[in-house]
Amino acid sequence: MGRIIKFLLGLAVGAGVGYATGLLLSPESGEENLRQVRRRIDAAVAEGQRAAGERRRELEAELARARQPGVG
Amino acid sequence: MSAFWRGFVLGAVAGAGAALVQAPRPGRETQAAIRAQFDAARGGLTGLAPDTARRQAGEWLERGVAAAEARRPELEETLVGLVTSTARLPAGAGGEAGRKTDAEVRQQVSALLDQVLALGRSWARQLKEEKSGWAESSSSC
Fold first, then answer.
1. Engineering a disulfide at B3: which of A3, A19, A48, B98 sits with its beta carbon 3.0 to 4.6 angstroms away?
2. How far is CA B37 from CA A19, A34, B42, B74, in A?
3. ipTM confidence score
4. Average pLDDT over every residue of A21-43
């Protein structure tokens, strides 16, 4: 049996097993799962933006200090 | 890792992901629904049948058991004859020529008949009882 056939067979069996397991162990309905993932991604993005803004302000303050005459 | 298992892992990940997105309800509820279906299938006939039909079945079973009990000596004789003529029984404690004695066979047949009749009586009683469901009583044992 060719490698590709074996691979495809494994893919099909694995997909079936994985799908059944997912249905049985799903923490919530699919819709709710998606909503939670989306919420988590949104939160991560927001946190990233907040951290970036903070860092930007820090750097800007540092730059301003560096540009002040008489310093450095 | 062979090609099969590489495909299996990939398929399992993809399948699980698809299931988590498509799941119609939480996994716990899916499990409960499947369990309920099995229970319903096991309770099947008596669970769906109206009480009157169940009691009727119990009545017939009881009558059958009673008929068997009425003709018990005959029945026992037939069974013993059947066993001794056809079955080559393993050597029993008292079997001299590597075969069980007729008395032993008769005793065993009698005990078996007792059990079967008792089982039939208990089933008939369960079926005739108004409220107690067949499924509950059979799933508890």
1. A3
2. 20, 28, 9, 44
3. 0.70
4. 94
